[in-house]
Amino acid sequence: MTPAAAATPFRVVCLAGDGIGPEVMREAIRALQALPLRIEVDERPFGGPGIRASGDPLPAATLTACREADAVLLAAVGSPEYERAEVRPEQGLLRIRSGLGVFANLRPVRADGVDVMIVRELSGGLYYGRKGRLSDGMAFDICEYHPWQIERIARRAFDLAAGRRQAVTLVDKYGVLETSKLWREVVDEIAAGYPDVRLDAMLVDNAAMQLVRDPGSFDVMLTENTFGDILSDVAAVATGGVGLAPSASLSEDGPGIFEPVHGSAPDIAGRGIANPAAMIRSAALMLEYGLGRTDEAGLLDRAVDEALRSTPTRDLGGTATTVEFGDAVVALLSTPEA
């Protein structure tokens, strides 16, 4: 039985961005429209198209639309056209994350025998800390965290683990970094409120090795911004590649951002050979974590998994084009068994 469609349409802002972004976004929208669900799509310029339209990778009208939406679906940004420019498409990424207040980046990693959820803190650390250059030529980047930033991401990780295999691994560089010591103190306090969830701690270098050797040994991995950025890519490559990996960036009470991990791949843009699986999987994460539609998220995930088996694209050794893969997903969603 297919789930009943929501009475009120969900409003989703779609930011196709650069390179292969428009191609994979098109397939994600088609897949969403094939579900028993009412979704209003609002396409807005972001990245290179934003610069061309207004001189800004994140135009004010785009940010306003995102804030008023139920969720934001983002494809990819980055273009050789702006490689040496002062204003670049990528500059819109940190701004939109900050503008929407997202702080919890979820990176699910699934493969045969592997089901890991990496929970990365997204609003602090080196990327947002003080930085600069001194008169003697030295450069600096400061890793900064407040206890409240750690508390809220830790609660998100423990809540997720409670509904999974009830295990959290905190990844840090304890003994070297003062911020890691603070993370352990705060996470230990939060863990006391979740007696059924086991907490372990692991140094980041060991965690990276274990992700390659035995990724199935992890359930929920909790870590700070920079470590999470690196580890999630390691995990994706170890279990099939970043080309298949989706992500979700969640706020406390506003719209989340849902995007594939892969880049804009300008070298294959316009050729119709990009794999849209990660983009469509990101739409499934949006349904589950952004719109609360777990049934439809499951339908979409299963359709993508089956399409990967039956209609692989060139990067997976097949011959399917971007549109053909999308056709396969839509057809699977349209069958009674879906």
Order of strands in the sheet with most strands? 2-1-3-12-11-4-5-10-8-9
By CATH, the topology of the largest domain is Isopropylmalate Dehydrogenase
Task: Supply the CATH architecture of the largest domain.
Answer: 3-Layer(aba) Sandwich
Instruction: Write down how many β-strands occur, each being a DSSP E stretch of 2 or more residues.
Output: 12
How much is the radius of gyration in Å? 20 Å
Please state the structural category: alpha/beta
Fraction in helix: 40-55%
Uncertain segments are none
What sequence of helices (H) and strands (E) makes up the elements? EHEHHEHEEEEHEHEHEHEEHHH
Shape verdict = globular
Distance between the termini: 9 Å
Beta-strand content bin: 15-25%
Query: Major sheet, described briefly?
Result: 10 strands, mixed
Fourth CATH level, the homologous superfamily of the largest domain: Isopropylmalate Dehydrogenase
Q: Give the number of helices.
A: 11
The CATH class label of the largest domain is: Alpha Beta
What is the average of the pLDDT values? 94
Whole-number tally of structural domains = 2
